[in-house]
Amino acid sequence: MGISPWILKEVRDFVSQHLPGIDSRKVMINATHTHTAPVVKMDHYAIPYQIPEGVTSPEKALEYIVNKISEGIMQAWKNQQKSTVTWGMDYAKVAYNRRASYADGTAKMYGNTAVDEFRKMEGPEDESINTLFFWNTKGELIAACINIACPSQIVEGRNTVNADYWHYVRQNMQKRLGKQVVVLGWIGAAGDQNPRPMYNKIAEARMVQLRSGVAPKDLKMDGFNYQTEIYLQEIADRITNAVVRSYEAVKVDRHSDVVMKHTVEKLALPMRIITQKEYWEIKHTIENYSKTEEDRRKNYGPIEWNSDAIKRYANQQKIEHPLYETEVHVLRIGDVAICSNPFELYTDYGVQMKARSRALQTFVVQLTGSGSYLPTEFAVKGGHYSAVPQSNEVGPEGGQVLVDRTVQLINQLW
Known about the structure:
- The protein is 37% helix and 20% strand.
- The chain is α+β, with helices and mostly antiparallel strands.
- The protein has 3 domains: 1-76, no CATH class; 81-257, no CATH class; 274-318.
- The chain has a 4-stranded mixed sheet. Strands 10-11-12-14 form a 4-stranded mixed sheet, covered by helices on one side. Strands 4-3-5 form a 3-stranded antiparallel sheet.
- The two termini are 33 Å apart.
């Protein structure tokens, strides 16, 4: 779901030791927000337990991931070659805003849209698919960096490792453009998005089945299972079609000599302040979860989630204006900008960055760290998961600071 500080530190330490030609501060790693990946946080489990034999521990998962990333950087650095690059954009329906707004002003993530009180989806959806293409000296397409403002969590909840729609995108790209093509997946600002529809659900399910050659079935108004290989392939096909349309248009506009700049800056963002009223509500919630030892064991996840907010409230009593320190990368490659943030950033913020950027195209890449949701002011008013204090270390005030400074850094490169 995110990049833990342990992964980033270990990889940067490796780069510092083995590749002195690289400024390790400029190593940027992003997550694709799949919910079917190994746990790498050593302190993830509030209640210690014996990991069964044959099950990968967080320590082993961390070691494996760090080694793979480090090997990839080493190979890339040692096998540098002249290449050409270009950029393109098209559109595909991948992201669906997942927060429903109601007549009383409240909102709910994955809320029911088939009720009389439903009024609108809370925020926008960014359907642009931005791609960077790279060719070798033989004229072969060797890589595509694909930027999609939607997490890859179609099959979230499975107990197996799964790259989600990115696996099918890679297969599609290699079938259509050659086995040598490497696909790098960048998730855009998508904290309030998901890759499954919130309305028109049954109509879309029927069309997906028909397009895949399957006779329509299980078309129930009270629910349809989108967590299938058929739907993974559907979303991958939409993405691939958009990328290939871009490729066909821009392949005649390659560049071999482009401006390349990379800025890294530490930002101190104002943290979301927890009010006294919110504090007592959270404290009461913890008490309800903790009435017995069995309750505490069963509810350790929600208890920890709420307890973190209590700790933040205590910190507020010591520090009047608490700050969240984070790191932002901004790159210029030719006519495009690439900017990072560590959050599950609501799409509105990404739209602001793209609209205000001087770049021809702007790639917003989220979850380059382990940051929490960063909601809009409108979302905070609506409430519910992803927009409540427990979900946010940084709120709308900090989000605007992030946008403003990121745009400044981008525009300084032009």
